[in-house]
Design brief:
By secondary structure, the chain is α/β, with parallel strands linked by helices. It has 3 domains: 2-59, Alpha-Beta Plaits, CATH 3.30.70; 69-136, GMP Synthetase, Chain A, domain 3; 158-337, Vaccinia Virus protein VP39 (Rossmann fold, 3-Layer(aba) Sandwich), CATH 3.40.50.150. The chain has helices spanning 13-22, 69-73, 93-105, 162-169, 201-206, 218-230, 244-247, 270-276, 296-306; strands at 2-9, 33-35, 38-42, 54-59, 80-82, 85-88, 112-116, 129-133, 138-143, 146-151, 189-192, 210-215, 237-241, 255-260, 277-290, 311-324, 327-337. The strands form 4 sheets. The chain has a 7-stranded mixed sheet with strand order 13-12-11-14-15-17-16. Helix 5 (201-206) links the parallel strand 11 (189-192) and strand 12 (210-215). The longest helix is centred in the N-terminal third of the chain and has 13 residues, at 93-105.
Amino acid sequence: MEVPCVRVPREEGEATRRQLAEADLIDDEYEISVAEGDLYVPVVDPEAVSDDLEVVSRPVSERETQTTPADLLGFEPSYERLGTAALLDEDDDERARAIADAVVESDLPLETVVNKASKVKGETRVRDWDLLAGEDTTVVHREYGCEFALDLSDVYFSPRLATERHRVAEQVGELRRASVDENGAKRERALDMFAGVGPFVIPFAKRGAECVGVDINETAIEYLRENARRNGVEDRVTAICEDVREVAAEYENWADRLVMNLPHSADDFLESAVTLASDDCVIHYYDIQHEDDPFGPGERAIREAAEPDYEVGVETERVVRSYAPHELNVCLDVRLER
């Protein structure tokens, strides 16, 4: 069976394997193979692979010694992986229990199984989970070389957005102008207005940015501080538990880069975003809109908030994923220049 594989020279194989493992991209259902001096590592999501690695389609063998949940169930279950946890979205309790038992009995490195018990709710955007296997809902998730501890019951975190977060993080350091620190060195200043446990802040800081993460969820902020320590960037991360609208005046004209990942209501915070923005600032604005005009409402809202004090230029319009029938989760990368 042909599957997407990263192809690297054999001497670079172990370093590449570690890189892919840290990003949780290795497809455990297939064997890593060697041919003509190259190593082929099967991957689960070729679009999430770093641009500096080559992805090819290649026939590879399934792991003979690995028992998968599908082997035990007789059908392919649907679930997301987050660290050593499997996240289910099953309405049938008996089916959910059967999948959980199969996950635990399989050879996959998964210890915890939870099933969604509610939609995302409240201003902290958390949901209820039924714990079907494992001791609790705390996990450690690895993504593109970063490590995130979190409790699914207390914070919002979506593994589906890993590729999007990596896309944005790779832009850090590319701004035409950046703020100058006390030593006279240019250091980009980035502020995540709804930071959670730090999936944007931590990779930004690892790329050298001075970062501020703001969130109204106290538990998320505690995890953000812990994750800054885990990743060795605590000296470049300030974590603030507060409504960002109450913080904006303190950081007026501070941010060279802003993340606004609150798709249902980010427009309510655009006045604060304009206050936070430096003279040359990029905003990553996330929105959910109808497929007939997914980008127009966001752009109009940003222009209304920022003009005429800033020139507004839309640099990227990107569909992140389908959200619901005829609705799209999108991102606009917008540059504000005073």
